[in-house]
Design goal:
147 residues; alpha+beta; two-stranded antiparallel sheet; rod-shaped
Length: 147
């Protein structure tokens, strides 16, 4: 016994002899849908419009997960971390040969070298001048060093 398959348009749910499975490419993928001739024409027009849009558009790349941004705010004025390491070793402090420098070591360096403060001659967010900040850093360094 033969069976009759009736295809139904996936968009408007109509039945008809003109309904057929239609394949179309979009964004490097192939899709399939059952459409009548009229809806196939609408799909073709829509795809032509999308193709025109894509030709005139620019692709937006997803932002990649970047590494944590390095601290770009200057911590020292006129000195490098190499200078701090050399000074710290001369003071008998244990510092790593490279990599992150402990904040305490940098504070002690600034206390010993007030001109190294990143905002020498200006006020910090607490309203202290560079000289007052250096005195505070010196007091903190002495307190933590047990001097």
């Amino acid at each position: 016994m033969a069976q009759k398959v009736i295809l139904v348009d996936d968009l408007d749910h109509s039945e008809g002899d003109d309904v057929a499975r239609r394949e179309f490419p979009l964004l490097n993928r192939t899709f399939a849908i059952d459409l009548s001739d009229a809806n196939q024409q609408r799909l073709s027009e829509a795809l032509a419009f999308i193709e025109e849009v894509l030709e005139n558009a620019r692709e937006v790349k997803q932002a990649s997960r970047s590494k944590k941004a390095a601290d770009t705010s200057p911590r020292l004025r006129g000195h490098t971390l190499t200078d701090v390491r050399e000074w710290a070793r001369e003071q008998g402090l244990d510092v790593p040969p490279r990599g992150k420098m402990a904040d305490e070591v940098i504070e002690r360096f600034i206390a010993a070298h007030p001109d190294a403060a990143p905002d020498a001659g200006s006020e910090d967010p607490d309203g202290q001048s560079a000289e007052e900040s250096a005195e505070t850093a010196t007091a903190h360094a002495e307190a933590t060093a047990g001097v």
